[in-house]
Write a structure and sequence with these properties.
By secondary structure, the protein is an alpha/beta fold. The strands form four sheets. The protein has an eight-stranded parallel β-sheet. A six-stranded mixed β-sheet has the order 3-2-7-21-22-23, covered by helices on one side. Strands 9-10-11-13-12 form a five-stranded mixed β-sheet. The protein is globular.
């Protein structure tokens, strides 16, 4: 049964009293509406295809028959035609069919909001950064907050931006824009004043207020210090949140994503539940809420269950550390380029243990962000301790990102059954500059896809959208080639960690399904499974891996509903 909307909304509003900037400013469950999701197809047969099923019992076929929400048959074109009856028949002409891609790590609403905000990800110079903000500010009314951005200071040599860069071009608009990894933001002087942040503001545990030589804040806040801005930034209305969700669902459908694991808040969950109540969901969502609120989730699950195949709860997202790009990843040894710094913990090991243990005793899934090798070891130790102390069960602990693993900890993922939830795009992005930050020796354990598979770990692939594009074909390209975005590593950055196309496909389908306790419903193509599938214009296993990034999604189906079909193949 769907989660009770009033109950979830009440929980969201309880949190809103504690964190008003993260709650919806308009929260009535009636009013703004979305278009209803399309109905499932009565019957559709796709024939003459290269069908990669992901099912070990029958990994390949050349046709699939969908009837209503589910798959009726997978087999030869002759077999499927015989069973199709009056079904609409699509001749794939050799194109590839795969299970729908499952993105195991997104910030879904943030991604939707970012689609309509200032675009800074590819700003290559300080001047371009400033000019884009100036141009965007000219399009919005005075007083409007300028948010998102996704800037990357490594594009212009590594100098952090400063509020003084943009104050003169945003005299009437507070600015609060994030680095692309989400672990540091830049505020202009108007935003700092609105939040009461100045020279005398105290430092925040697990965060950094970047200051100039005179002690004045430059406007850059890292990790927990970003919370200082929370009371000043206005919350979006429910109308705007639903629009962001609609944009996000459209965007991921275009890239073949049929399910997402959302890392967010209780108020995000209330938005998803309202869309579900309206029958408007076109993407399956597993929504995780903050790990520190595990007792609230325990009570919500006990009262209302874990949801259904469209919207599920039961996962809790926590943080050990920050990010490599922000120098807030917790490392065993100092950063190569800053020998005085080993990063930081966003939460204490004591709190992480208490939350993990309590959540696990309640039967909830614990999902923890750990990027640096010290952070990863700390959370693996906590998982091992909790597993030893609590009764045996199918817990499926997850480490999100698992980016820089110490060699001694590689085999622990398989031994402990910890799922490595990873984002291959980060490897070809960070690989442009990571060697300078941690050195080539530590880089050997970075985005270690092959070593983790060899250790018996389950890989669950995702994007970390808005941080990176929710584009599974690019993720598969990244995992199989490891060619950095600047093409300076044509043979691959840390090439020994490349994996095969089928291994990458499995991580983005069945692996992510398992990470979300959904492997009996989605992630493979077999009779009785939900008809979540993607049609791709070429067989990814029969082309040079370097050309995978040129492949295109031709059709996306979720539960028999055609949610993307630009060429009208199914009409």
């Amino acid at each position: 049964m769907p989660i009770s909307h009033p109950a979830v909304l009440a929980a969201a509003l309880t949190l809103a009293s504690l964190t008003p900037a993260r709650a919806m400013s308009q929260s009535t469950p009636t009013g703004p509406t979305l278009a209803p999701a399309p109905a499932p197809v009565p019957a559709l047969a796709i024939v003459n295809a290269r069908v990669w099923t992901g099912d070990p019992r029958r990994p390949w076929a050349d046709a699939v028959l969908v009837r209503g929400e589910r798959i009726e048959a997978v087999g030869s074109s002759a077999e499927v035609r015989k069973r199709a009856g009056a079904a609409r028949v699509v001749d794939a002409k050799g194109m590839m069919v795969t299970p729908g891609f499952i993105d195991a790590h997104v910030h879904f609403l943030d991604g939707g909001f970012a689609l309509s905000s200032v675009k800074l990800r590819d700003a290559r110079t300080k001047a371009e950064f400033i000019s884009r903000i100036r141009a965007f500010a000219a399009t919005v009314p005075p007083g409007t907050w300028i948010l998102n951005g996704d800037w990357d200071h490594t594009n212009w040599g590594g100098e952090l931006p400063d509020r003084r860069w943009i104050d003169s071009v945003t005299p009437n608009n507070p600015v609060w824009i994030n680095r692309l990894d989400g672990h540091m933001n830049l505020a202009n002087s108007l935003a700092l004043a609105a939040a009461g942040i100045g020279r005398d503001t105290r430092e925040v545990a697990g965060g950094t207020i970047v200051r100039d030589a005179s002690g004045e804040p430059t406007g850059v806040l890292k990790d927990n210090a970003m919370d200082l801005m929370s009371n000043a930034v206005p919350a979006p209305s429910l109308t705007m949140s639903l629009r962001a969700l609609d944009s996000a669902m459209t965007y991921v459908a275009e890239h073949g994503v049929t399910s997402v694991h959302h890392m967010g808040s209780w108020s995000d969950l209330a938005v998803f539940q309202e869309a579900h109540r309206q029958g408007a969901l076109r993407t399956r969502i597993s929504a995780a809420v903050p790990l520190s609120t595990w007792s609230m989730l325990r009570d919500t699950v006990a009262a209302h269950g874990r949801g259904d195949a469209w919207l599920r709860i039961g996962g809790l997202k926590g943080f050990v550390d920050g990010s490599l790009g922000s120098h807030t990843a917790a490392m065993l040894e100092p950063f190569t380029d800053v020998p005085s710094d080993r990063g930081l913990f966003v939460n204490t090991p004591e709190n992480l243990y208490a939350w993990t243990s309590g959540a696990d005793r309640a039967g909830l899934q614990v999902i923890v962000h750990a990027i640096g090798d010290r952070a990863i070891r700390t959370q693996l130790d906590i998982f091992q301790r909790v597993e030893a102390e609590n009764p045996a069960r199918d817990r499926r602990f997850r480490i999100e990102h698992a980016q820089h693993i110490a060699p001694a900890d590689m085999k622990r993922f398989g031994a402990l059954g910890v799922i490595a939830s990873m984002q291959p795009y980060h490897a070809i992005d960070d690989g442009r500059w990571a060697d300078a930050v941690i050195g080539p020796e530590r880089a050997k354990g970075t985005y270690a896809f092959k070593s983790l598979l060899d250790a018996g770990a389950t890989l669950a692939f995702g994007s970390d959208w808005f941080v990176a594009p929710a584009a599974p074909l690019m993720a598969i390209y990244a995992a199989t080639t490891r060619r950095t975005l600047d093409d300076r590593h044509p043979g691959g950055w840390v090439p020994e960690q490349k994996i095969s196309v089928e291994q990458a496909l499995r991580a983005h389908t069945a692996g992510s399904a398992r990470a979300g306790f959904m492997e009996r419903e989605v992630g493979t193509l077999a009779p009785g499974m939900f008809a979540d599938l993607v049609l791709i214009d070429r067989d990814l296993t029969r082309i040079a891996p370097e050309t995978i990034r040129d492949a295109r999604v031709m059709m996306t189906m979720v539960g028999g509903r055609v949610v993307y079909d630009p060429s009208g193949l199914t009409r």
